[in-house]
Amino acid sequence: MHEAVAPDESRLVEALRSRDEGAFTELARAYQSSLLRVAQIFVANRAVAEEVVQETWLAVLEGIDRFEGRSSLKTWIFRILTNRAKTRAVRERRTLPFSALEPERVPEPAVEAARFRGSEDPIWPGHWSTPPQAWPDERLVAAETREKVADAIEELPASQRAVISLRDVEGWSAEEVCNALDISETNQRVLLHRARAKVRTALEDYLG
After folding, report:
1. Last residue of a domain, one of 77, 97, 117
2. By three-state DSSP, how is residue 109 classified?
3. Quick check: 155 and 170 in contact, CB under 8 A?
């Protein structure tokens, strides 16, 4: 996948090369939380993830003069992060996360089987027995409901949490997520679908 560098990113790159402190602050404000989420896929805990993010920012500042614009600035930064996080994981002998973003050998159902009618159902075999419910808009925008969504996302497996956070919280495109995490479009779609299903189930439980 290839991305064009957006005009505002070109301005940012030039400012960073001029060692503009304001440009770096702008960049950090935009990506710090997302970098931390992704780093936590690979390393043991939040403290280590924060160290990896700091190492990433140093690498960005040291390497910005060599940035060639073959991908977006955002993708370049996140590739640096994932490489640093993987190196740190190897150093700490934490090998499990390396398979976290790979397709699962045993597919995980996105929705519990109990919510569907059985194949022997005389009227609607395989259809919903407990379909998703529509919720009032005013409840969905309530602060408490947003907190429940955030809590549900935090409970997800790391790979699903990273994908749904980047897609639905940060507003990234599927292509941007695939490039940043170095995963296939198919795997990105599966992880996002499962994450959204789990968050929806948590909201259904909360909203009753």
Report:
1. 97
2. coil
3. no
Is the distance from CB of 169 to CB of 194 less than 8 angstroms? no
What is the 8-class DSSP label of residue 169? Answer: I
Distance CA 148, CA 1 (A): 35
DSSP 130: S
Counting the structural domains of the chain, the total is 2
pTM, rounded to two decimals = 0.64
Residue 114: give the domain boundaries. Answer: 101-207
Structure tokens, 7: 């005009």
Q: Please give the Cα distance from 171 to 33 (Å, whole number).
A: 13
| Tens-place pLDDT, residues 172-188 | 899 988 888 888 999 99
Give the list of residues 6+ apart from residue 30 with CB closer than 8 angstroms, or none: none
